[in-house]
Design brief:
There is one protein chain. The protein is of the alpha+beta class. About 50% of the residues lie in helices and about 10% in strands. It contains twelve helices and ten strands. The strands form four sheets. It has a four-stranded antiparallel sheet. A two-stranded antiparallel ribbon has the order 4-5. Strand 4 and strand 5 form a beta hairpin. Helix 7 packs antiparallel against helix 8 and helix 11 packs antiparallel against helix 12. One of its GO terms (cellular component) is plasma membrane.
C-alpha cells in the first residue's frame, strides 16, 4: 500500500514513525513484534492502527519528551547552547540539559527530523536474544530485528511522517511566497542540511541568472528584427524556407522571405501550443511511470526483475519521444520561417 494513503489516516501529530505490514500478516506476527518493541524499547509509545479500506495494520510510533531527551544523549545529538553558557553547538547531555536553548519548550526543542532520527535509531537497534525465532525466521544472538524483518518482507515499510503544522507554515512562507527570501533555516530544521543546501544553491543560481537573462532578452529583441543578419547565412547549404520570394539585399538574388508578423503569429498560435502539449505529455507519462513504480514496489510477491520494468518503460518512452519531438521540431522550424 502507498505510504501516501497512510499519511492521510494520521488523526494526530502524536506519531513520528510509521511501520506498515502486508495485508497477509497474521495476529501472531503483530503481537510478537509489538511485545518485543515494548519490552526491548520501553521508551517508545506504540499504537496499533488498522486501515479501513485495505485492512492493513500499522504501528504508530512516538516517544515522550523525557525519553527523547535520553535518546538525544545516547546518540550524541548536537544542539545549540544558550549564550550565557558559551553559545555554539554541543552534544546533548541530560546532566546539563539546562544549558541548551529552548530546553523548556517541549514543542520546539526537537525538530521533527531529530525526533524521527532518535526513534529510528532505537528501532533499528532492537536486538534478538539467543534462540529467538518468528515462524521460519531464526535470529542470531544480537542480530537487529527490525532490519531483518524488513528485508524478509514481514515489515512492508518504515518511514517518518510529515508534521502538518510545519508543512502549512512552509507552504505560506516558502511555496506560496513571491519575491521573498527562502526560509532556509526552517527548511534545514525540517528537511535536513542536504535539502537546505540544495535549495540555497538553487536560489543563488536563479538570482544569478537574472542579469544574463535580462541582457539576453534585450539583445534578442534588437537582433530579431534584423533580417539581413539571417540572410548572410543563406548560402551555407541550408534547405530553403517557406515563404514568398524577393530579391535579397545581400546577394541580389531571388530568395524566400517570411514576414516577421507571420512568424510571430505562427509562434503564438502553433509553436507555443505544440510545445506545451509535448511537455504536458512527457510530464504525464513520467508521472504515470513513477506511480507504477510505487505500485510495483508495494507488491512483495513480484519477482525482482519485474520491479525494474517501470524504469525500463520510462527509458524507452523518453527515447521514443526524443525521436518524435525531433521531427516535430524540424517541422516547426520549417513552417515558422526560421
Amino acid at each position: 500500500m502507498s505510504h501516501k494513503a497512510w499519511m492521510k489516516t494520521v488523526p494526530t501529530e502524536n506519531c513520528d514513525v510509521l511501520m506498515t505490514f502486508p495485508d497477509t500478516t497474521d495476529d501472531h506476527t503483530l503481537l510478537w513484534l509489538l511485545n518485543h518493541i515494548r519490552l526491548g524499547i520501553p521508551e517508545l509509545i506504540v499504537q496499533v492502527r488498522h486501515h479501513k479500506h485495505t485492512r492493513v495494520y500499522a504501528f504508530f510510533v512516538t516517544a515522550t519528551y523525557e525519553s527523547l531527551l535520553r535518546g538525544a544523549d545516547e546518540i550524541g545529538l548536537r544542539k545549540p547552547v544558550k549564550a550565557e553558557f558559551g553559545g555554539g553547538m554541543r552534544s546533548f547531555s541530560c546532566e546539563e540539559d539546562y544549558i541548551y536553548e529552548n530546553i523548556e519548550n517541549e514543542l520546539y526543542f526537537f525538530t521533527s527530523q531529530e525526533r524521527q532520527n532518535i526513534i529510528r535509531y532505537w528501532l533499528e537497534n532492537l536486538r534478538a536474544k539467543q534462540g529467538e525465532s518468528l515462524h521460519n525466521i531464526h535470529f542470531l544472538e544480537g542480530q537487529p530485528i527490525i532490519p531483518e524483518l524488513a528485508a524478509r518482507g514481514v515489515i512492508q515499510q518504515l518511514f517518518p511522517l510529515h508534521e502538518q503544522r510545519i508543512l502549512k507554515r512552509l507552504m505560506k512562507s516558502w511555496v506560496q511566497a513571491i519575491c521573498e527570501a527562502q526560509p532556509l533555516d526552517e527548511i534545514c530544521d525540517y528537511f535536513g542540511v542536504k535539502i537546505a543546501l540544495y535549495f540555497a544553491w538553487l536560489g543563488f543560481y536563479t538570482s544569478a541568472m537574472v542579469y544574463p537573462a535580462v541582457f539576453g532578452s534585450i539583445l534578442y529583441t534588437f537582433t530579431e528584427s534584423d533580417q539581413v543578419r539571417g540572410g548572410e547565412l543563406r548560402n551555407w547549404g541550408q534547405p530553403p524556407h517557406l515563404g514568398a520570394t524577393r530579391i535579397s539585399p545581400v546577394t541580389s538574388t531571388e530568395e524566400f522571405y517570411y514576414p516577421p508578423w507571420k512568424r510571430l503569429l505562427f509562434q503564438c498560435l502553433v509553436s507555443l501550443p505544440v510545445c506545451l502539449i509535448c511537455l504536458s505529455f512527457v510530464f504525464l507519462l513520467m508521472l504515470g511511470c513513477f506511480q507504477l513504480q510505487e505500485f510495483v514496489l508495494s507488491i512483495q510477491e513480484l519477482p525482482r526483475i519485474i520491479r525494474f520494468l517501470p524504469k525500463i518503460a520510462l527509458a524507452v518512452i523518453v527515447t521514443a519521444c526524443d525521436e518524435l519531438y525531433k521531427k516535430i521540431a524540424y517541422w516547426l522550424n520549417d513552417m515558422g520561417g526560421w
